[in-house]
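Intended use. Records like the one below are meant for learning the mapping from a protein sequence to its folded structure. Do not use them to infer anything beyond what is encoded.
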Amino acid sequence: MKNKLYFLLLLLVASNVQAQTEDFSAFRERMMNDYQGFRKDIMGRYVEFLDAAWTEYEAMSGRRRVAKPKPVVAPVYTPPSVPVVEEEPIVIEPEEEMVSDSPTTPELPKAPVTPSAPQTPKVPVVPSPEIPQIQFTLYGLQLTVPAPKVEPALGYVTQQEVVRFWKKIHESDNRACVEIMKQYAENYRLGDWCTFKAIEVYCEAWAKGNTAACRVMMQYLMLSLGYDVRMAIAGDKVYLMLPFEQLVYENTYLTVNNNRYYIYPKNVPDESRMYSCDVPADVDCGREMNLIINPAYRLPKNNQPFALSYGGLSIQGVVNKNVIDLQQQYPSMDIYCYAASTADAEVKRMVVKQLKEQLAGLGEADAANVMLHFVQKAFEYKTDEQQFGDGVEKSFFFDETLYFPYCDCEDRSIFYAYLIHEVLGLDVLLVGYPGHECTAVALSVAPQSAVGFTYRGKTYYICDPTYIGANIGVCMPDYVNVRPEIEEWY
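Structure written out for the chain above:
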């Protein structure tokens, strides 16, 4: 995706000197007023783009992330019958510059934040009861937002009718619903994807079954909130075009001005002709949607217990089912995005605290080994297709690995990588092989006869949470001489 310099940031830099000399509250109010004026100008200009002839685009099939099938049963390590002669680690130098046809990945976030217990968020002030309200539930949140001042009356789906309806929305005063939705997003730290889902549930309640009207309203509200979300028409249906910062898999997309817009809902019928309005490449209509979750959500608790133990280690606690429900509707991303996300900081903090206490006194290699065997044995292995059905490929966030009864290689690797980094403070990478995922840990002392590689000046040793019984430094035989794909996540 193209790199955008947001108007608000430009204004902040340009006004830095003046901000030092005037009252900060007055400066902030003036700055926000200028930004609102900027957004109002963009919304006004958008009508011009809609009125022009729409362009036909070719819908591209979404990429599949996994090409090689995963093992149906987790492989078990068999120690060699002949003692292994101690030797230097096998070193595989990965390419520093990895070529990919994926969009440019944004700068990686810093290590997941685990703040203290969140304070109770302020609830937005809802207008008086005389104003019609829409009440809806979003992952346990009970939200109330003023109803749009327009009826969901969109019949035939043509460019002319869609544009006419969009203008009708624009000409009505819907500032209250935009502002309160924005407050909810900030107060409950919904992030970009959950904010989009809030808009969707709200618009579905308002549209009462008129899907086309619902999606036009969704696009208008997301655009009003500052996102470069667009519309497309295919046949007699309206679709949304979502500009994700991250690469998303198995999702149809359009390429506009060399930028990918992912179709929502994610698939359209084969050979569909899709039409969307042209927006000049130099016009900034808003920001992309960042799918990495950080900081953590503030969602009501719906606690589900978990308890796991093996080899002298045990963890127990609760996960929030509301967070799990949200994650089940998440787009499919690169594995590092799941590892970099913190949906529920309290769960991570609780697990890390328990393991730190139990591993106190052990050296880094021994502690890494104990945790490796814990993840290998405490979790039961099943592929996503075995657990969820044919054709399903689902990577887990940290919380999901604790919630679901089974997990596979990438889920274990995401989980183990976080533990290594947070419990032991060691550098750890996610490592991808064809059809398999594991980790690599930088240790101060090399394990005997270990498989490893150098990366950015450090030596990392394979730690495979799915190779049952294998110690740190042991790699599955099929991958010993395979160049790994390195995935940084913090």
